[in-house]
Amino acid sequence: MNLFDVYPLFDVNIVKGKGCHVWDDKGQEYLDLYGGHAVISVGHCHPHYIEKLTRQLGRLGFYSNSVVNKLQVELAERLGKACGYEDYQFFLINSGAEANENALKLASFYNGRKRVLSLSKAFHGRTSLAVEATDNPKIIAPINANGHVTYLPLNDLDAFKVELAKGDVCAVIVECIQGVGGIRLATAEFMQGVRQACDETDTVLICDEIQCGYGRSGKFFAHQHLGVKPDLITVAKGIGNGFPMGAVLISPKFTPVYGQLGTTFGGNHLACAAALAVLDIMEEEHLVENAAKVGNFLMEGIKALRLPHVVDVRGRGLMIGVELDVPYKEIRNKLLFEEHCFTGCSGTNVLRLLPPLCLGEAEAADFLKRLERVVNN
């Protein structure tokens, strides 16, 4: 049997990681400014993370959600305090797409509606309704194209008000920093206006914090830069530092009903141990604050280089887009194969920087030198 060939792969086999560095099977070290697609929040192979998972695996790896799991309760309490949403409820699943599926389902249960407003260039996942809310027709199968979603431009408040005034919108789903969309930032005016219009029409506001959340923006959640409070917040990626996990934070306006949502593997004992270890490390090492500080250092450093082909540098914290006036492919390949540095990408001309939140200023300065060599040569 062969692998189903849907991923274009770099010919690099990564076999080891530590902090913000990874190594291939030939012993070559790489600086990781990609974080496994924004998944690695506290660094590769952090000793506390390893110890917590190893200890839990020696006790119990899994049992079903038909019994009490006190690790879930502890995680909900710890996360509520860390992010400032202690009065919210918590539902655990396995991925970002699942988180968005369940958030949209909850929204529809709440107000009985079917239509969703999403953003142009949005990415919300690859499952049924999550992929329909994703503005990429290439990955929406005919069976998923059910006419539920209207895409509107980012920061076009008037367009959202017009659609919300029709009274048939179930939910608005927003990435406050679009990842796949090219590190495009929602404005405070836009988000506060959407929040008000949602309140006036009893529409549910969902903030997809799967990539931009969990400390990456320099606040725990990206929407906290914008002065809004969503009804539902979806998280995944960095929540488990690589252990598959997702969750929905649910406002008190929602009343749970037995059987309404469900999952087999969500919130299992190992996943909760991973997520608790992540919170431990984020708090102990002040990684949210570090993301803000080092992210600003990195963005200002790239701007100061005044590199050819770099036309814009944008983002918040350690979620940064470097827009080029040429396709990113050659620069990204040179960074990887000549400078041994992983970066992400978006569209055809944006480099995406999504390093672990423990990236230090010395490592950021090292990256600036590598980027300068590549772009100037």
Automatic annotation (TrEMBL):
Cited InterPro entries: Aminotrans_3, Aminotrans_3_PPA_site, Class-III_PLP-dep_AT, PyrdxlP-dep_Trfase, PyrdxlP-dep_Trfase_major, PyrdxlP-dep_Trfase_small
Domain of life where this protein originates: Bacteria
Cited Pfam families: Aminotran_3
Alphabetically ordered keywords of this record: Aminotransferase, Pyridoxal phosphate, Transferase
Protein name as it appears in the record: Acetylornithine transaminase
CC cofactor: pyridoxal 5'-phosphate
The keyword Transferase is assigned to this record: yes
Record's keyword annotation contains Transferase: yes
SUPFAM superfamilies (UniProt xref): PLP-dependent transferases
Family: Belongs to the class-III pyridoxal-phosphate-dependent aminotransferase family.
PANTHER family from the UniProt entry: ACETYLORNITHINE AMINOTRANSFERASE, MITOCHONDRIAL, AMINOTRANSFERASE CLASS III
GO molecular function list: identical protein binding; pyridoxal phosphate binding; transaminase activity
